[in-house]
């Protein structure tokens, strides 16, 4: 081989290597997309209450971001200039199916990140899979505190507070409003969400109402639908307060069946997550019921440009105001957008890898329509946020349930501090809570 | 005393709808020897049809009583037609095959009907609450009960008695019993067994759908409604003895009362109660409480 040939081959090789290196380090182009797996209930018991509002909220936000039409600080198109390409999957079908679907999203559809999950059972099942595959998973809704309290994850984040906030806040609201609670009865679904919610509420009640006695404590199965016997037991117990974390069709059926039997007249009903059933129940929801929305959401949300954008835009697009699931997916997408853009600012504008996204998301803070979201727990992987509670009052003119007597609680008043398990924090007297 | 009465009333309310569903399943098994997995789907079908009928009536500002009648009539007509067509168009092709084949066929029907209901009614919950207020509220045993729930007790008792009377005191019923006892002998005596099969299956479907319709005003109709009912009705039929009307009644009352007692006395055990009863009964009577004696054929 002559010298010219060797130089030519070396030059060719160098060109190829340089081109490859340039391609790998080039800033994200306008044509590049961010493929986002979104998992939410499109069928089944949770679809109407959570899944479909979440899907609708997600579609609204992604459309707005892709058009560059969101308010500051989210006006940049898509994620850092990359259009968001959603791949939407139905969460219905159980945890085993969701594990398979998550693998498909990462390995077959090659999504850049997965965002979703409403069911606590599904969240518990899919988190280890994302960790095993070293892919970013953003949990947007599920409530059980156990995800980060019983395991440690690097690639998994939850962009909303867990259920402890709902229950501690609910008891604080009752105390602030002088609700009498010498006796308490409870009805919760017999699975992760119901059991964890019940444990948190009872423990918080015992802290703020030291003399409270737990009378009837019911755990019907998920999707029971008929609560005749349970209602007899609750009415018979005659407790001052009946607490429930029921949701969706179960909560609606419970309200429909218990109201004619006089339960709301005999006991103060307190529901930790009930805003989503107000539109379908209408005047069937008893006045004076104390409810939470798992955040300062919907009719309890506070005015801000971001909130106006979501509330009015969602209402115009869907003919109904947004409830908790729409808010929670919105804050999740905005959080991911903030993380992507933070990572891109660090790596010279390239599309970030999973590890770069993890670094950017850890400990992140961002504004959402429901207020400030702070990734403060679980080494920066679990969010805390503020929450609101209120009482229901049917408005015959607007033919909708209004929410009155609203109180807001700051994030650090109702969430445990870093490094402390929720139940331990509650049972220890909720030390370090900052409520003013 | 009031506490005891509450358990009895709650148990009977639960038993009433359980009995109607289980009665349909046990009849189909008794006559056709089919363990019908699709039975829960017919229950769901009845609930959805009822919701549609009630909603349509309410949309015309007609009183809830009209909605109640409309839901029962529409469910009766549609469910019996569906049952008849299904038996004539599908099941009869598999008679004489292994029982497992028929079990799989009904499982296939279950899967198809699950998707058909989604296709027609969508995946979101549907409500049809108007008839629930029809009978007002009744003070009883120190509590208020919804009159609608209490009315279900005599309705299911009437259905049970009518079926028992029809089977045991009418010529048609005796023909059906003859087919249950000995199909070959019935054929040789000139009984049109195919006709009996079709009517029995359609009637079983009708009962399942009727139970769904009667339950519809107090629940939300949504996908997945059918699965729980299959388990419950199957457990009751097994407790009572496959093919026995009396068994279905006793099984439903046992399960209803046990679940009610459990919720009032030991809520943690409620989910296990049905399996506890089933295990207890099967330990001592492996063929259920009311299985008929059958003559051994030589």
TrEMBL record, chain A:
Signal peptide per UniProt: 1-30
SUPFAM superfamilies from the UniProt entry: Periplasmic binding protein-like I
Gene Ontology BP term (one): amino acid transport
Membrane spanning stretches: none
Cross-referenced InterPro entries: BCAA_transport, Leu-bd, Peripla_BP_I
CDD domains the record matches: PBP1_As_SBP-like
Residue ranges of every copy of the Leucine-binding protein domain listed in the record: 34-392
Record keywords, A-Z: Amino-acid transport, Signal, Transport
PANTHER family reported for this sequence: ABC TRANSPORTER SUBSTRATE-BINDING PROTEIN, LEUCINE-SPECIFIC-BINDING PROTEIN
UniProt similarity note: Belongs to the leucine-binding protein family.
This protein's name: ABC transporter substrate-binding protein
Organism field: Bradyrhizobium sediminis
Automatic annotation (TrEMBL), chain B:
Pfam families: BPD_transp_2 (PF02653)
Locations listed in the record: Cell membrane
Keyword Transport appears in the UniProt entry: yes
GO cellular component: plasma membrane
Main subcellular location of this protein, as a coarse class: membrane
Segments crossing the lipid bilayer: 12-35, 42-62, 68-88, 100-123, 143-167, 196-217, 229-257, 269-286
Topological category with respect to the lipid bilayer: Multi-pass membrane protein
InterPro entries found in the cross-reference section: ABC_transp_permease (IPR001851), BCAA_transport_permease (IPR052157)
Keywords: Amino-acid transport, Cell membrane, Membrane, Transmembrane, Transmembrane helix, Transport
GO biological process: amino acid transport
MF terms (GO), sorted A to Z: transmembrane transporter activity
Stated family: Belongs to the binding-protein-dependent transport system permease family. LivHM subfamily.
PANTHER family reported for this sequence: ABC TRANSPORTER ATP-BINDING PROTEIN, BRANCHED-CHAIN AMINO ACID TRANSPORT SYSTEM PERMEASE PROTEIN LIVH
Name assigned to this protein: Branched-chain amino acid ABC transporter permease
Organism the protein comes from: Bradyrhizobium sediminis
Lineage: Bacteria, Pseudomonadati, Pseudomonadota, Alphaproteobacteria, Hyphomicrobiales
